[in-house]
Amino acid sequence: xxxxxxxxxDRQFQAQDLGELKKLAAAGDLGPGDMVQPPGASDWLYAxxxxxxxxxxxxxxxxDIDDDWDMPQKSRVPAIIILALVAVAGAFGIWxxxxxxxxxxxxxLLGPNGLQLNEMLVTQDSTVRGEPSDSAAAVTTVxxxxxxxxLAKRKDWYTIKTSEGKSGYLGVKSVIPAYIFSxxxxxxxxxxxxxxxxxxxxxxxxxxxxxxxxxLNITLFQFLLQNTSxxxxxxxxxxxxxKDKNDRVLERKEIKVEGSIPxxxxxxxxxxxxxxxxxxxxxRLMTASMFSELAAKDPSLSMRWAEGVEVHMKSEGFVEANIxxxxxxxxxxxx
Length: 335
Hints:
- The protein is an alpha+beta fold.
- The chain has 3 domains: about 5-55; about 80-195, SH3 type barrels; about 200-330, Immunoglobulin-like.
- Helices cover about 15% and strands about 35% of the residues.
- It has 7 helices and 20 strands.
- The strands form 5 sheets. Strands 12, 13, 16, 17, 18 and 19 form a 6-stranded antiparallel β-sheet that branches. Strands 10-9-8-5-11 form a 5-stranded antiparallel β-sheet, with no helix packed on it.
- About 35% of the residues are buried.
- Residues about 60-115 have low confidence and may be disordered.
């Protein structure tokens, strides 16, 4: 008889029955934000969504995580929270003296004008950069207390949009996402939205060069992108890296991929070649899920589709090639 599947980050294991899950929860080895798949089911649930388990989570038990990921409803929040958020830079320990942590329903009101799920509060005067680097050109500046919109995450940088509509990169230490001040269950539930790169993984990657490709310095990468979160993931940017026999990096090249990865799913990435009447047109790199949607409307696209991504690298004589995730964003979507 099939057991219960449990996913904790990049780790997955099986529990024999509900009784074993209860023991794990009571021992603290199963958190309310861990994902659980009941026997025979195809969908995944947060552990806190299972009635027999929710009462075992003492911190944040009973938090209602809506399956459609609608914005939290408004509720009253102590004024001291709003004032402290604006006044204190880097206040990740603020809840120690606030005395009351907001729940999921309170998140919308945090901040001077109310923070939405995809917004963050700036905690110090900062420069928004055109690239994810402290030496990159400035796009604009933001001040302590400003609100910015979260677009994506790249390592230690958020891609953000200011209230004036300017986009750029802002260091993760310059902002506070509203969920930081919530209970543990809510933080775990919203964490994929603010740290999507911790929930998307490159799997089963391989590379090869056929003789004609080697002459053109073309490397073919084949891989899966796996999403372990309850959010759909899009805004995908990957990086191809090649190294010599001494493990020295010869070259890196960024690759933007169209489409998205469905929640709790894995997809191949492939290439859609240009049509015959435009052979010099651009090749489109996209997820297999996006291609399936396009092919459903135009079956002839199947003749131009190939799994894998061809990357033109300038360097020669490399012995190792890798493909890694560089940037991604989570998108709350309705089923």
